[in-house]
Amino acid sequence: MRRAAARIACITGCVALVATVGLVLVAGSGGVAAEPLAPSVKPTATLSVGQSIVLKNTTPLVGDQEIYPPSACRGKAASLDESVAPLTCKAYRIVLNLDPDPRADNTVFIEADFNQTQLPSLPLVALGLNPPPVNGLDVYVWDQEDHWLGENAPGTLDPVTGPGDPNDEPTGAASFNEPERGGFTAKQRIYDITVQADAGVNQGYDLHLTFSNEIFTAPHEVLDQFGNTAAPSDTSSPEPTFTPPADTSSEAPTIALPEASVTPDQDIAGIGLGTTQEFNPNGFALPPRTRDVAATAKPPSGVALVLGLVAVPLATAAVGVFALRRRRQALLT
Question: How far apart (Å, rounded) are the C-alpha atoms in residues 200 and 204?
């Protein structure tokens, strides 16, 4: 009996040990499984390659430091803390028609335009510092109901929890910039986007979304320099033939051209650029009473300069003052 009881106790202990190890492994591998996006949500927009859309919001949003999931921003709060989410964020569901081309890099570009308010602060301005702006805006892209892109990126987690997931790339649209710009590479068809006020009260925004496969058409270049007239994209054409340049090592003979007979223009003949190739000097002759003063003129003397620039103005000013005083005395008497 004792051996049977000991055997049963050993088996029970082994089973308990295996169950405990299994629970530890499950908890260590991630705990609760990631919750996918709710399929019952009606899409806000469906984008194909090359399409863009603008989502406008005029409802004021109050800033909050908590990041709320899309379900809470739609008004489906799972806790009391998430009941205020509709006052601070908006959620949108987008569906992407991905390009199946292996070369395609399906990319969504994000830009949120809004007006940021800069509050003046006299103490900070006196110190030469500018206070930070208020009513910021953050844009989050959710691939799962409880995970946004970049949540586990390296550098965003606490050092104790590990280096993070290098494949979890942030979108870059959750900064304090104006406007918010970012983008991400789509790896699934459905995403949720939340726009959340960061600080202060946001008065409205315009959310621009553009979907591109990032495949650029090859430019049509002129490649007939060496006789290649085939288009770059025509792969069925034969190889281009190389035409060597002309041999210019030997000098070509110089061919003398006969002199051309030029008929003089009768309209301008005799006045230059005509048959005489000179101007008539009689046209420059001055009248007989003209006096040539350019060769005999002399500069004024120093006495003349002093009299003309100093003595005469002072004498004129003195006469004017004397006349005004006599007039004033006459008026007073």
Answer: 12
Cα distance between residue 288 and residue 266, in whole Å: 32
Report the amino acid identity of residue 125: V
**Beta bridge pairs of residue 194:** 91, 140
pTM over 0.70: no
What is the phi/psi pair of residue 315, to 5°?
-65, -40
Q: What share of the chain is helix, strand, coil (3-state, %, to 5)?
A: 25, 20, 55
- How many whole angstroms separate alpha carbon 201 and alpha carbon 119? 13
Tokens 């499984």 correspond to 33
pLDDT in tens, 262-304: 666 665 555 544 445 555 566 556 666 665 555 556 777 888 8
Instruction: For residue range 24-47, list pLDDT tens digits in order.
Output: 333 333 334 467 888 889 999 999
Candidates 86, 90, 64; CA nearest to 77 is: 86
Torsion of CA 115, 202, 72, 35, to 10 degrees: 30
Question: CA 186, CA 319: separation in Å to the nearest integer?
Answer: 95
Tokens found for residue 137: 């805006």
Distances (CA, A) of 324 to 313, 319, 328, 332: 17, 9, 6, 12
> 71, 78 in Cβ contact below 8 A?
yes
Please state, in angstroms and rounded to a whole number, the distance separating the CA atoms of residues 19 and 206: 53
Burial 178-206 (b: 16+ CB within 10 A, else e): ebbbbbbebeeebbbbbbbbbbbebeebe
CA distance 140 to 148: 6
H/E element, 332: helix 312-332
